[in-house]
Amino acid sequence: MRSPDRVISSADRMAPESSRGGHLRPPKSGNAGSAAYADRLLDRWSSSPTTALYVSNPNVATRLAEHQAHCLSSLFASDLGNEHVEIVLRIGATHHRLQMPSQWHLASYAHLVGEHLGLLHEHSNSRKGFFASVNVLMRSVLFDISLTIDAYEMHLLQEIQEQVDRPMVEAPQ
């Protein structure tokens, strides 16, 4: 089983860049775009019977929208150091604990990429700049996805190990 320390060590070698900054700094709107995207994501989840349960409580939905906006903002501008890796591993652990299928996480990233390609194109000064931005975005998204899936795997293996380590109860005779 990969420990969090091993994942962080691997992440240091795999990180697309030490900082996502440069190419992906949000345009002048700053975090407003992140909040708007988070709102659209929650609307999408609310309209699906399988995900609506997770956002039906208004307090939970508000916290989730704030968290999603922060995550999106960090996707575009954070450093990819140990702190970022630990945050993404915690997100994956939380998703696993809540029994959210990893496919939902992947689908959210697919929507994110789809919604942001036009913005990257609009704010790029050249074709080369656009492709550089898309490259950084895709590498960052795939890096975060790999960390989240590592977290699912680590926690699933931990649960299995805990079950294996439990003493067996003998049936009454």
- Compute the average pLDDT: 77
Q: Report helical residue fraction.
A: over 70%
Q: How would the global form be characterised?
A: globular
Could you tell me the radius of gyration in angstroms? 19 Å
How many extended strands? 0
Major sheet summary line:
none
Helix vs. strand class: mainly alpha
- Fraction in beta strands: under 5%
Task: Note the gap between the termini.
Answer: 38 Å
- Total number of helices: 7
Name a few traits of the molecule.
173 residues; mainly alpha; 75% helix
Structure characterization notes:
- This protein is mostly helical and 173 residues long.
- The longest helix is centred in the last third of the chain and has 39 residues, at 127-165.
- The chain is globular, with a radius of gyration of 19 Å.
- It has seven helices and no strands.
